[in-house]
Write a structure and sequence with these properties.
Number of strands: 12
Shape: elongated
Oligomer: single chain
Distance between the termini: 41 Å
Number of domains: 2
Largest sheet: 12 strands, mixed
Structural class: alpha+beta
Strand content: 5-15%
Radius of gyration: 33 Å
């Protein structure tokens, strides 16, 4: 045990001394240091930036999915994407009938697999309060269970009551941006605003959702009114509409989708040979699409960073060969005093790893500066995670060890007599 401790202490002392010597050498020839570490720095910067960007994209996607559960299904005119092997025949999809309230009621009354269902229609209407107006938003008119399908988060006030949705009461819930533009710091609750020409009482304000690449609709720039009240604001028969559904927990996905399609074909009286004239869209498609995007970005990052790291690896190898050359006499003395091959090998591998880690640390520092520069961008919330820092440092240290192996092996196999007498 004592012998092992002594050997470990000796190796640790040699490695520490080697690292100190390495950084002293780097300080002495700064231009060579810059050239040696530049490739590793750029490579780690590229790879860790890509990892951080992918994490930001995932956060963005997850934020968008928070407003619609990943199990939510949408019945619409247009599919999210054409079936495999087919083209997107938009001219055919455009001729399809819009989902109807009667179809929503039919699904609600006859389905055995649905947990929650809501009918949704929307139209653009100018929203006014006193002299302030908001023309960029739209009115969303869902049925009562919308909060169960869309997971509405109310920051101020409350959601609709069942009575308000059934009795066509003129109440509205504002999106965050709509409330900010109309009231500009004034308390919005219980105020009367105009939706088109109709006076409507504000009962709530939704929590800010921010931007997301998978938002089905822009919550922040919309307002919610009960579907029963929407008929006084616009023609709900011709407005954009869809039916949103979520399955029961114990129901298989395929069983759920199949039942929905059968019920929709039944109410639309489609014959067995006729194609569906509706689309059943799933959030899983968006998830799969974003995974492909992440994979492509990650591959590009590895390619760009890989070339830089390869160049940096050659730089590390070069500086290690120079280090071996400059310290040949010292290596000979160490071996003459009894230093083993593995001791010399470990010493130079640690030196190479330390050099690469220095380059990697600088690259990660630059990533941190990029993250600081983009802070506050809610659409792309970049954060440098501990995991990505450790991953970047691990990659740089491995590159250093690989690049420094041949110089270290050369040093470990020097003949002590020849090394001492080398000039």
């Amino acid at each position: 045990m004592v012998t092992f401790y002594r050997k470990f202490k000796m190796i640790l002392r040699l490695i520490t001394g080697s690292i100190i010597f390495a950084f002293a050498s780097l300080k002495g020839d700064r231009f060579r240091t810059f050239l040696s570490l530049f490739g590793v720095t750029i490579g780690i910067f590229s790879i860790v930036t890509v990892f951080t960007a992918i994490d930001a994209l995932k956060t963005n996607v997850e934020g968008g999915l928070q407003s619609f559960g990943s199990t939510t299904v949408y019945i619409q005119m247009f599919p999210f994407a054409p079936e495999e092997g087919e083209e997107f025949k938009w001219w055919e999809f455009r001729s399809r009938p819009l989902p109807k309230y009667e179809e929503y009621m039919f699904l609600r009354n006859n389905s055995k697999t649905i947990e929650a269902i809501s009918f949704f229609t929307s139209a653009n209407i100018t929203i006014k309060y006193k002299r302030n107006s908001f023309a960029d938003g739209f009115v969303t008119a869902p049925t009562y269970d919308w909060n169960k399908v869309a997971n509405i988060e109310i920051e101020q006030g409350r959601y609709f009551s069942l009575h308000e949705t059934q009795a066509s009461i003129s109440v509205v819930i504002l999106g965050y941006e709509v409330a900010q533009n109309l009231f500009r710091g004034e308390e919005p609750l219980d105020k009367i605003i105009k939706l088109g020409n109709s006076n409507t009482r504000v009962i709530g304000v939704m929590k800010k959702a921010g931007e997301s690449i998978v938002n089905i609709y822009d919550t922040d720039n919309s307002v919610l009114v009960p579907y029963s009240y929407a008929g006084t604001l616009f023609n709900t028969k011709r407005a954009n509409s869809m039916i949103c559904l979520t399955p029961k927990e114990n129901v298989l996905r395929d069983e759920f989708i199949q039942e929905i399609k059968l019920l929709m074909r039944s109410i639309r009286r489609l014959k067995p040979k006729q194609k569906d004239n509706f689309a059943v869209n799933e959030m899983t498609f968006l998830l799969d699409s974003t995974k492909q995007i992440f994979s492509g970005i990650s591959l590009a990052g590895w390619v760009i960073g890989g070339f830089s790291i390869l160049i940096g690896g050659f730089g590390i190898a070069n500086i290690m060969f120079v280090s071996v050359k400059e310290r040949t006499n010292l290596i000979g003395i160490q071996k003459a005093l009894g230093a083993k091959k593995y001791t010399i090998l470990t010493q130079f591998l640690a030196e190479a790893a330390a050099l690469a880690l220095a380059g990697g640390a600088i690259g990660i520092f630059f990533v941190f500066m990029v993250v600081l520069a983009t802070r506050g961008n809610e659409a792309f919330p970049m954060q440098l995670s501990i995991y990505n820092i450790i991953r970047g440092l691990m990659i740089s240290s491995i590159i250093g060890i690989v690049a420094g192996f041949i110089p270290a092996y050369t040093a470990a196999n020097l003949n002590p007599v020849e090394a001492i007498n080398a000039k």
